[in-house]
Every structure is written in structure tokens, then in C-alpha cells.
Amino acid sequence: MKMRVAVLLAVIAMFCAADAHKCPLDGLMSSLTKSVASAVLEKVTLSCIDASAKGSLVDCPVGYKPTGCSCGNACGSWDIRNDQTCHCQCANQDWTAARCCKIALK
């Protein structure tokens, strides 16, 4: 794969060196990036679930990552610990919720 990319870049460089005015390299790279991104996005899906628990901590299930947290008692201070756990920072939390997501192949 690395070799293919290197060859492709070499071909583009030679093509552009011949006539720089007719080679909008930025446009070409933008098109290539959009094409690759589109191909990747066609093969993946984003799956999200909610998790909640009493207290100030809630873990996302295995394979999922927290993307946002919500806290009881009007607490707006939270953080994500160990890339897996939502933590509400206010004292005496009655509940904590997390939005947990994962990217999967279709």
C-alpha cells in the first residue's frame, strides 16, 4: 500500500512538473481526499447507546467510548477517565449518564 501511494505521488509530481499552470495539485489532492473519505465512510457505521448508573461514575460497555456525559443535581462539571468512564465532578451525585459510541464495519 505504501508503495502504491509513493508511485501515485511520483506520477502526480512528474505530471505537474511538465506544466504547473495546468496542474491544480490542491484541487487534485482535495478530490483524492474526498474520494478516499467517501469510500471509507461507505464501509463503516457509527453505533451509539446510552449508559447510566447511580452515583458519580458510569462505564461504557466494552468496545464503546464515551462521547459525552450528563450529571444529576444540575451538575455541569464532568470528565472522561481512562477513555472509558464518565465522571461527574460535583459532590453527592444521584446519577450519571454517558453517550457511548463505536465505529464498526458494515
Question: What does this protein look like?
Answer:
By secondary structure, the chain is an alpha+beta fold. About 35% of the residues lie in helices and about 40% in strands. The strands form 2 sheets. The protein has a 3-stranded antiparallel β-sheet. A 3-stranded antiparallel β-sheet has the order 2-5-4, with no helix packed on it.
Short description:
The chain has 106 residues and is α+β, with helices and mostly antiparallel strands. It has helices at 2-18, 25-43, and strands at residues 44-54, 57-59, 65-71, 78-81, 85-88, 95-105. 34% of the residues lie in helices and 38% in strands.
**Spatial order of the strands forming the largest sheet:** 1-6-3
Kindly, what is the distance between the CA atoms of the first and last residues, rounded to a whole number of angstroms? 22 Å
Radius of gyration over all CA atoms, rounded: 23 Å
Q: Count of DSSP helices?
A: 2
What gross morphology would you assign?
elongated
- Beta-strand content bin: 35-45%
* Largest pleated sheet: 3 strands, antiparallel
Uncertain segments of ≥5 residues (pLDDT<50)?
Answer: none
Average pLDDT, all residues: 84
- Number of DSSP E strands: 6
Structural class from helices and strands? alpha+beta
Which bin fits the share of residues in helices? Answer: 25-40%
